[in-house]
Structure formats: C-alpha cells, structure tokens
Design goal:
The protein has 246 residues and is α/β, with parallel strands linked by helices. It has one domain: Undecaprenyl pyrophosphate synthetase, CATH 3.40.1180. The chain has 8 helices and 6 strands; from the N terminus they run βααβαβαβααββαα. The chain has a 6-stranded parallel sheet with strand order 3-4-2-1-5-6, sandwiched between helices. The mean pLDDT is 97. The protein binds 3-methylbut-3-enyl trihydrogen diphosphate (2 copies) and magnesium ion.
Length: 246
C-alpha cells in the first residue's frame, strides 16, 4: 500500500465511477451485476475517504445523458440508488457524513427523490465529510440554468452588471457550497469528462486509471492519492514561485 502524507490530501475529491457494465460483460454477467458490485466500491471509497479526513467527496452516479440508456437499465439503476440510500443512511450517521445531491432532482422518480430528501435531512446535522452524489447531473445544463437565473436577477435589478464575477457565477451553480475539486479520478480507461463539473475543474488535477469501478479497491485508491501527492500545482506560475510560497 502506498504511504500517504495526511497534510497533502485533496480537500475535495471528485470521481467519475465508470466501467460497471464492462466489468460484468467481461464475466458474462448482466450489466446490473456490475452496478451492484459498483455499490460495494462506493461503500469502500466513502468509508476510506472519510477515515483519511477528506472533506468533500463527489461521486458521478448518474448523468443527464444516462436517461438515454435502455429503460430496464435505468429502472435497475434507480432501484439500486433507492436501496443504497435506504441502507446506507445509518452508516453515514455512524461516520458523521453529510449527504448532498447535485443535479436535476425533478427528473428523478418520486420514490427515489423522497429517499434522497430523507438522506439529506437525516444527515443534515453531521459535521464530517460531505458526500455529494451527482444525480441526473449535466454540467452544461447546470451552467445554462445558472445563466438563466443570473439573467432573471439582472432583469429584476437584484444584481447589477458590475457584480458579475467568477465568484458570483460560481454561486449560481449546484456546487455553490462546495470548493472546487482538487483531484478528479475516472476509472475504466476512458479519458473524457462526459459533461461533469466543467466550470469547477478548471485547475483540478486529473487521474485516469484502466481499472473498472467494481475493481477499484483500497490499494488502487491509495495509488491514485499517492500520484496526486507527487504533483506540483503551479496555477500558471513557475516551480520556484510555488515552492517559495510553501
Ligand atoms: C458507470 O458504469 C455507472 C453509470 C454510468 C451509471 P457504466 O454503466 O457506464 O459501465 P460501462 O462504461 O458501460 O462499462
Ligand atoms: C459518465 O459515465 C457518467 C457516470 C459515471 C455516471 P458514462 O459511462 O455515462 O460516460 P460516457 O457516455 O461513456 O461518456
Ligand atoms: Mg460508462
């Protein structure tokens, strides 16, 4: 297992959990079996992140584009999500984790949305890690929605043109309460962002691994974090400047 420096962990870790379907198909199993196995990985990574002291963990669980999948798969995923929420809330309580969701919740089936609301409410007073699930989430939709509300506020005079700044724009996004991700992991070998947190990842460190999500275990997680810790974040400056600041 890689050794980690507790002082240099990402404050906000985001993960695109990918490869459940292929994991199952490689084993001649149904895709849903891969999704079920993926839920076990979620459990492991949530628990490990919280133990390590990561403050914000954001998991891409269902994209706005995923609604285009076969109806049966969408239905199974929604059922799995509801079961996860019902089952995991007590574990979230034990670990002092606060649950949150980003995405268009109005698209979710009513029973799933109720389970979401329930988990948010039950964990709302927890003070440890914030676990955010991106559900029916699409970054362009998020930005479009933000621009539209910003325009409303401009037109109604609640906001003036001079007040438009990067911070102000961020405040209209679903992620207004969350800092920008320091580190983004995508599993399964795909090297794309798939409409996830486009505005927020401007200076995020990216990490791609061939490992499918169901196989992403503690050892792989530590490997990824060790890789992050070996990087130098320069934000446009040169190495000497960044080192001096430390
Ligand atoms: C990620 O696994 C889970 C979701 C997108 C819901 P996939 O279902 O995308 O798995 P692959 O990419 O088909 O292997
Ligand atoms: C991205 O995975 C969305 C989630 C992980 C929830 P996809 O498997 O849907 O991404 P694409 O379609 O291959 O880019
Ligand atoms: Mg995929």
């Amino acid at each position: 297992m890689h050794k980690l420096d507790p002082e240099k962990l990402p404050k906000h870790l985001a993960i695109i959990m990918d490869g459940n379907g292929r994991w199952a198909q490689e084993r001649m199993l149904k895709r849903i079996v891969g999704h079920r196995k993926g839920v076990e990985t979620v459990r492991t990574i949530v628990e490990e992140s919280s133990l390590l002291g990561i403050k914000f963990l954001t998991l891409f669980a269902f994209s706005s584009e995923n609604w285009l999948r076969p109806k049966t798969e969408v239905r199974s995923l929604m059922a799995l999500l509801k079961a996860y929420l019902a089952k995991e809330t007590s574990r979230l309580m034990t670990n002092n984790i606060r649950f949150a969701v980003i995405g268009d919740r109005s698209d979710l089936p009513e029973d799933v949305d109720r389970a979401v609301a329930d988990a948010i409410e039950k964990t709302s007073r927890n003070t440890g890690m914030v676990l955010t699930l991106a559900l029916s989430y699409g970054s362009r939709q998020e930005i479009t929605n933000a621009v539209s509300r910003l325009a409303d506020d401009l037109l109604s005079g609640q906001l003036s043109r001079e007040e438009i700044s990067e911070e102000r724009i961020s405040s209209y996004l679903y992620t207004s309460d969350i800092p920008e991700p320091d580190f983004l992991i995508r599993t399964s070998g795909e090297m794309r962002i798939s409409n996830f947190l486009l505005w927020q990842i401007a200076y995020t460190e990216l990490y791609f691994t061939e490992v499918n999500w169901p196989d992403f275990n503690k050892q792989e997680f530590y490997r990824a974090l060790a890789n992050y810790q070996a990087r130098e974040r320069r934000y446009g400056q040169i190495s000497d400047q960044v080192r001096k600041r430390r």
